[in-house]
What does this fold into?
Amino acid sequence: MTAPVAFAPEVAEARAAGRPIVALESTIITHGMPYPANLETARAVADDVRAEGATPAIMAVAGGRIHVGLEPERLAALAEARDVRKLSRADLAVALSEGWTGATTVAATMICARLAGVAVFATGGIGGVHRGAETSFDISADLEELAQTRVTVVASGAKAILDLPKTLEALETRGVPVIAYGQDALPAFWSRDSGLPAPLRLDSPEAVARAHLMRARLGLPGGQLVANPIPAEAEIPAEALRPHIDAALAAAEAQAVAAKAVTPFLLARIGAATEGAALAANIALARANGRLAARIAVALARIAAER
Ligand code: PSU
Ligand code: MN
It folds into this structure.
């Protein structure tokens, strides 16, 4: 018995030819951004990946199958659909056995990527330890997935709505390499610098690819988090965002928003409060992450070919 995986034609061709592929998630489309910016961003990130010489594979679940790559009509329908489920590791099997339509989080996308033989994945920001997690216990399954599934995830760190020091500690405990790309500081999603030093730093796609391969040679499970700072021209300084983040967190508490709804609620509130500036930054960082992930995938393919 094998996993129910359906490859889009573009991805099937890339696989057959041994060309590099970059996994992309779908929760950022259905729960992370409003329509139509979500659809435009998904198309732009896919084009960015192609421009760097790799093939994009947006992951989603429908009709009892994991779709690896979405054809244009399927992508457009997903971006417009309401009440799409947000699927993490815990939900994936039931969603497939029940034939639900669902979008994959970072954790679920990593699982789908592994099943599809895709080593590199780009998103906006991973989930992590929420503020107040000492009482709510709200810690994203993305962290456990990074600890067990061998996929390199390119993101602009963890979302700044989270408790970043606790998120770093949780990643360290789980043995996840957190690699700042091209700088010493851990990025903070909409801002380039969280004020926290990143545990590791690498400066080229080749270096990230070599580290990915070395982890496999050591037999270590789990992936690596490549924390790519948002392009300087698109960043929002952390001080400018802080009041909006605090207000959104207060609203979430007042309205008793919990579980899967927390992150989408906070992103939507902060997007509205900043009159779209946070959304524009999110789009810019997602595109930059797609480009870097493609360069890493190309480097991985090149190193593999040299062996
Ligand atoms: N990156 C973005 N926007 C998003 C996400 C990532 O720029 O909405 C999604 C990812 O799917 C990630 C999820 O896994 O947010 C985190 O959700 P939670 O905090 O509930 O684990
Ligand atoms: Mn959560």
Residues 138, 140, 262 surround manganese (II) ion (ligand 2) (CB under 6 Å). The mean pLDDT is 98. The radius of gyration is 18 Å.
